[in-house]
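User: Sequence for Signal recognition particle protein below. Tokens please.
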Amino acid sequence: SLSDRLSATFQNLRGKGRLSEADIDATVREIRRALLDADVAVPVVREFTAHVKERALGAEVSEALNPSQQIVKIVNEELQNILGGQTRRINMAKTGPTIIMLAGLQGAGKTTLAGKLSHWLKKQGHTPMLVASDLQRPNAVNQLQVVGSRAGVPVFAPHPGVNSEFEEVTGDPVQVARDGVAEARAKLHDVVIVDTAGRLGVDAELMQQARDIRDAINPHEVLFVIDAMIGQDAVNTANAFNEGVDFTGVVLSKLDGDARGGAALSVASVTGKPIMFASTGENVTDFEQFHPDRMASRILDMGDVLSLIEQAEQTWDKAEADRMAQKFADREDFTFEDFLAQMQQIRKMGSMKKLLMMMPGAAQMRQQLEQFDEKEIDRVEAIVRSMTPHERVAPKIINGSRRARIARGSGVTVSEVNQLMERFAQAQKMMKKLANGQMPGMPGGMQM
Ligand code: GDP
Ligand code: MG
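Assistant: Structure tokens for Signal recognition particle protein:
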């Protein structure tokens, strides 16, 4: 992946005291290759590498950073610039409902996003409503109704969906959009999200329909949803929709796939429009606000501790998260009680693997993570539960005979207990580093 390639490149620079022009050339060449392999559009790659090289050559000798750290910093800043710099939030209406229209190719993930976005808004206290203006695909209305009921959000759908490919859905999508917005206004919904139709390729008739919907409802946001796996086609598609509906923001979907980064960089760079959200799976909660700085870090594999914390806060018990944060702040020791509490939180979050993938150094760990076994959590939990309360908060006292007792109590071997003790010690070390503001996995332990 892109992050694997880039971190390998930076690894090569480690330990160099000074970078020659040849070092910089070689590094930039590697970056170019990695970006192209990740399907970043050619003109974007050219511009990006030119900037990085220029800045690297002109960089002042720094006291604080060694040369490889300096290049990482430059690449990170340039990535952030391309991705839009600041986090862009939804432009909310001052009065009446905030009108959000979705546009994009068929299969891009618009309808799925309608559910995720409305769920996310609802959790923040908004009262969204969905409008079924895709009357193109036979099953589209039904799909939106399913998505809406999963999110617990009402759906405006005056034209019942059909289940057969051979039945026609009739009705005027522009009128549905107009009526839907009126209904939202009348029922005092503060956000209304209008789902629209898309084709497999860019299509003049549907683009006109999208434009007509746009003109009829005058949305506060037009979100262009694009599949992150689309590769080199991203640029043409994004340009066509930018001209067609002049969207205000981009949503990258299917970022859970392999092609992270490539499409994001291309679309943001060629359209100059900000990426606002990322869709990362088929579930209603697989969704996050897009932060250019964090995406840049993720591409560079500095891990994504901030996204992790934010996602955690949504799903985790707030009180527990606060307790951990306070512990970090107070530099208290991480104990088995914390470990156990974290495991329960992780279970709640569902996808252990996805969570770990966002941790610092994930690129190097990817192979092990692929083999990750969720049953392992059960075993670990059984072991910790066999410890006494005192052992949990003072793990140093867990000697050989205590380990034997814990192993018997949890039905595992002593060597499994030993393994856990070792891993716990590592986790403890990592927590200490985090508390001290250091990012593990960075060359020279760069400060956060
Ligand atoms: P639309 O045609 O633009 O409305 O696209 P849909 O919302 O119907 O999505 C098309 C397909 O992609 C469906 O099978 C979705 O389940 C799937 N999908 C949508 N978003 C994501 C995502 O973020 N990750 C993954 N893995 N699949 C997604
Ligand atoms: Mg759809």
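The first helix runs from residue 2 to 13.
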